[in-house]
Amino acid sequence: MRSDNQFLENGDALPRILFAASEIQPLIKTGGLADVAGSLPIALHQLGVDVRLILPAYPAVIEKLVPLQALASLRIPGWGGQVRILQGSFKEDLPIYLVDIPGLFDRAGNPYVNAQGKDWKDNADRFAAFARVIVAIALKQTSIDWRPDLVHCNDWQTGLVPALLSQHSNRPASVFTIHNLSYQGVYNHDTFRRLRLPPEFWSHHGLEFYENFSFIKGGLAFADRITTVSPTYSREILTPEFGYGLEGLLNHRRPHLRGILNGIDDQFWNPASDPYLEANYSAADLAAKATNKQALQQTLGLTQDRDAMLLGHIGRTVPQKGCDLILDVLPRLIEKGDMQLALLGSGDPQLENALQEVAARHPQRIAVHIGYDEELAHRIEAGADAFLMPSRYEPCGLNQMYSLRYGTPPIVHRTGGLADTVTDASAENVMAETANGFVFEQPTADAMWEAIEHAHAIFRRPPVWWEKLARAGMGEDFSWQNSARAYLELYQQAIDEPLGNPLAKN
Ligand code: ADP
Ligand code: GLC
């Protein structure tokens, strides 16, 4: 196997990549997938790769990308109408293809759910059509005069792509990245039939999953290589606890499975230049961090207390993120007397209500902001003293990396990408600047509370302790460069040693 450095130094032609995702920051975002899809292609481009993006033409995206050029129109199996491919320009002039199917993607709001938070009823049709168009471009079956060497697919919405590609002998290679294995795109057999998928896919070696039809299995069974977004998560998903019934298949695919830690967009998330902050700061000069804390307390109506230990949390309020554990420790946090919490999130309405009720009773100490607010997210990262992230599982997690970069030590459960990025503080390693946060072993309120108490004790030591912890995190490199090189190496392996058709041997 050659290393990516040799690969680059030899001046070999770099592979052409079609990067497919159902959300891309800053065009449309519901979670970390969009952050990755908005920055990994740029890092690849900076390595010299010809990378192009493809995304459904949601109205919000069209609005942000006009003027657009109509490039091609085609028909696809399973959808009666005409499909158009529009081209726009993404960051650094990267071409972005938008799949324009008015009956499927021309609706306002969230890409996956309606205004009531329920999945769009035709999600299977929507993302099957998206996959068909990706495959048509990948096989150069449209009038677009460009053919990728590899298609990089992300999460279940693009899962059918590697499966459909496998039917063609002269196909580009495929990589499938699992950002979250618990979202699988599972539908019934009737849906499978309606989508006119090849009947031979109906096999447990193919798309069948306990008598249902699974989109994600298209990626897991058929892609030439599979990645997850952190090394620890790539091992966790091999177990029944984290594998959701797919651990058998994943163990079978183990030789082709790799964990590559996400990077972050270190321009957008940079405390030295972040336009959302009250005051910019850096590791060399942390003084202005206090100004951000004061501004955050003021904005959220918390007591203006510079000595209080202010904890932050940002995320989807769903069981994955362990928000219920935060709810459980609120009485202890209030009793402690010198702590505050700033929480930003949205998700499960019951949990949202429960958190808001406590905040309403203790407005000087607990601030809960329900909704999605990019600016407030940046201001919490900068203004909080420590960042809480008690996720039950976390394929990678971006907020702990943002908080490390903002000098706001994270308090995390040892799982997935949290385990790979946070080193627990002890008396020795804080002074040596090799610890950057706090890690607890079990996703329980008690274990988290113990870690909070530990953090609180270090916070109450002379300021040099906390500053060392903060500086250790700020000094780390979470840029995309290393990860982009790892992907490039993997792309080349996928191209050089493709997977045989998994259905062929049956
Ligand atoms: P996940 O993708 O599982 O939701 P990540 O940590 O990978 O988790 O990424 C979440 C991303 O979404 C981060 O960029 C985070 O800042 C952002 N985010 C989540 N909830 C909110 C919110 N309520 N307001 C603003 N940004 C949010
Ligand atoms: C998923 C995961 C999260 C990860 C993100 C980007 O949404 O839940 O842990 O950071 O994808 O890869």
List the helices and strands and how they pair.
Elements lengths: L3 H6 L7 E4 L11 H15 L4 E6 L2 H7 L3 E8 L2 E11 L5 E6 L1 H4 L17 H16 L11 E5 L5 H6 L7 E6 L7 E2 L1 H6 L13 E2 L2 E3 H8 L2 E4 L2 H6 L3 H4 L3 H6 L4 E3 L29 H12 L8 E9 L5 H14 L2 E9 L1 H13 L4 E5 L3 H10 L2 E4 L9 H7 L4 E4 L2 H6 L5 H5 L6 E3 L4 H15 L3 H12 L6 H16 L10
Helix pairs in contact: 2-21, 12-15, 13-14, 13-19, 16-20
Task: Describe what this molecule looks like in 3D.
By secondary structure, the protein is of the alpha/beta class. The protein folds into two domains: 4-263 and 481-505, Glycogen Phosphorylase B (Rossmann fold); 289-477, Glycogen Phosphorylase B (Rossmann fold). Helices cover 38% and strands 19% of the residues. The protein has 21 helices and 18 strands. It has helices at 4-9, 32-46, 59-65, 102-105, 123-138, 160-165, 189-194, 215-222, 231-236, 240-243, 247-252, 289-300, 323-336, 349-361, 374-383, 399-405, 416-421, 427-431, 445-459, 463-474, 481-496; strands at residues 17-20, 51-56, 69-76, 79-89, 95-100, 150-154, 173-178, 186-187, 208-209, 212-214, 225-228, 257-259, 309-317, 339-347, 366-370, 386-389, 410-413, 438-440. The strands form three sheets. The chain has a nine-stranded mixed sheet, sandwiched between helices. α2 (32-46) crosses α21 (481-496) and α12 (289-300) packs across α15. The radius of gyration is 23 Å and the shape is elongated. The chain starts with a helix and ends in a 10-residue tail after the last helix. It binds adenosine-5'-diphosphate and alpha-D-glucopyranose. The site of adenosine-5'-diphosphate has 17 residues, from α2, β13, β14 and α15.
